Amino acid sequence: MSRRVRLGVNIDHVATIRNARGVSYPDPSRAAIIALEAGADGITAHLREDRRHISDADIANLAAMLRERGRPLNLEMAVTSEMLAIALKHRPPAVCLVPERREERTTEGGLDVAHGHNWIAPFVQKLRDNGSRVSLFIGADPLQIEAASRTGAEVVELHTGAYCDAARDGHTDQAAAILEALVAGAQQAASLGLEVHAGHGIDYETVAPIAAIQQVAELNIGHFLIGEAIFTGLADAVGEMRRRIDAARAPD
Ligand code: PXP
At what angle do helices 28-37 and 56-69 cross, to 10 degrees? Predict the structure, then answer.
């Protein structure tokens, strides 16, 4: 097994800390530069409708800084006309469409592409026409993967949250079953011509089995890395994650 897995570092929670005080620091763009220097391939940021962490100004700053450095911004956004206008304006290299509910603490499930196809497909088309590569954040469900492949999206990001929660809580059998579904989902998506990404809830312990899924080309990781940065610094946290991803893909 080889093919290097790209690492996208999600810097949302740098903005969460900043916003707790309503001041200008810590700056997500500074965190993004450190993450890139420590082994991240790109930066992911979720502009939520309620602006609870990343702000419109953050997106403008990140887009400009990353363009200058030739590194991709992956903009996570809800499927709304407000977010579409922002994405069309900044033209990030990558857009990941996610479901969003105001009352949720984080992105708790995947997009329902199977039922929302007629609504999602035009968004995908407009974003693609504007030069962004579009990913759909979905569960490893055969119906959702099949529906995603009919929207024109080039990528699916499989939701790993349930696997990571089960593994962390010691529910070994449940974790193994969810991992099996993720492997099958990755195989199905790749067979339909989709690039496969994965993300949500990944930490040092859960990263290896996910990175070892052969079809996975990119991982997006945020909360754990920003938390770990409190103890070891962001560069060390990203560097350690990078090493673990590479080790999971090393030839046997
Ligand atoms: N991928 C997507 C689509 C997400 O919405 C999130 C959370 O914003 C992540 C990855 C990263 O998840 P975590 O912060 O739990 O690592």
Answer: 30
